[in-house]
Write a structure and sequence with these properties.
The protein has 88 residues and is mainly alpha-helical. It has four helices and two strands. Strands 1-2 form a two-stranded parallel sheet. The two termini are 22 Å apart.
């Protein structure tokens, strides 16, 4: 969500839940290196995998990242820093 995105900082965007619109999918497809990081729960990870699958037909690289924390907003500083480095 929004606060998880704020915790991540520059380069992070949010879908405002585990669903996404066609417009959000097409906007994400324009980013050459995409990292999908949803909350660390079974259903959220299933939806993250679906988003990655939908993005896989577009040029670029899409990765799905699972974090140890429940969500990015409650992740440790170290885990957030690792996520930030994944954008490089």
């Amino acid at each position: 969500g929004y606060f998880d995105m704020m915790r991540g900082g520059k380069g992070f965007v949010c879908t405002l839940g585990t669903g996404w619109s066609q417009a959000q999918l097409l906007a994400a497809a324009k980013i050459p290196l995409r990292t999908v990081c949803f909350d660390n729960e079974t259903e959220a990870q299933r939806r993250a995998a679906k988003l990655c699958e939908a993005l896989s037909c577009f040029p670029g690289v899409t990765r799905r990242v699972e974090i140890d924390a429940d969500d990015p907003g409650s992740a440790s500083d170290r885990e957030i820093e690792l996520l930030r480095r994944s954008f490089l």
